[in-house]
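Subject: Sanity check before I submit

Could someone independently write out the structure tokens for this chain? I want to compare against mine line by line before I put it in a report. The sequence has 281 residues.
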Amino acid sequence: MNLLLEMSQLVEASSNHSIDDGANIQEVYAPTIEELADLDSFLESAPEFKELKRGKVLRFLRARDFDKEKTTTMLKNHLEWSEKIKPLDVKIEDVEVKALESACWRYMGDSDDGSPILEVRVKLWNPHEYDIDAYEKYVVWFVTSCERMMKTHTKFIILFDMAGWGLWMAGYLRNILKLVDIAQNQYPERLRRVLLINAPYIFSGTWNLIKPWLDPKTAAKVAFVGGVSDDIKEELNSLAVKRCLLSTRYSGEMDDEKAERLPCPGFPFANVPDFNPLNKK
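---
Independent answer below. Compare away.
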């Protein structure tokens, strides 16, 4: 059997119901007639990917502007990565406890139109307490969990609270670039918007190192905003994000002390406990 086809089968065999299922493609991805024709043409010319979900292949095609050669290379690299990481098999008990207990990443709920919303509080980031492989698994678990939450929207929103960014964090650029790779190369067309909130001036040097690694489509989804500003209010309105989900530090309606004690990681799965250290007795 063709190795890539076998890898495709293994990836899809470990996946349950997904928003990428063929049955959902018309409703949630709203492809044009031309895109559907290009999708069919691509799968006919590259049968090694025929076992992948059609929505997934469509995302990779869109990420590479329907260039078949570039999409093939991207999918091959993704399947090799998936074979190594096995993202759909990562369970909460496989994730580094020190990462979870940092409460750095948290699922906050969904926008009115169905986009999962993630909050990342940089001041709580503790990459010095675990290695880069554990960090990758931590991020992958969050992204795949977001995918499981998707019902009507195929992209998620990330709010990066940059307050507390320290120069020492720039020493973990490899971790940041790993996050970039996961977002744009392993889960293309999953990001809807990234808001970098209250970024201090000292972050500008690190941002100048990160930005060249972003492809133009990803870079266009990133915006710098103040936590209490007209800019963030406009962004939240355009993204249909309910203010009741957000702390007052993001121009939301939730008392900041209450927001500090929200369950973490916050997904409403039966097997996921609350790791927020503030809630431990």
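---
OP: Matches mine. For the report I'm noting this point. The first helix runs from residue 3 to 13.
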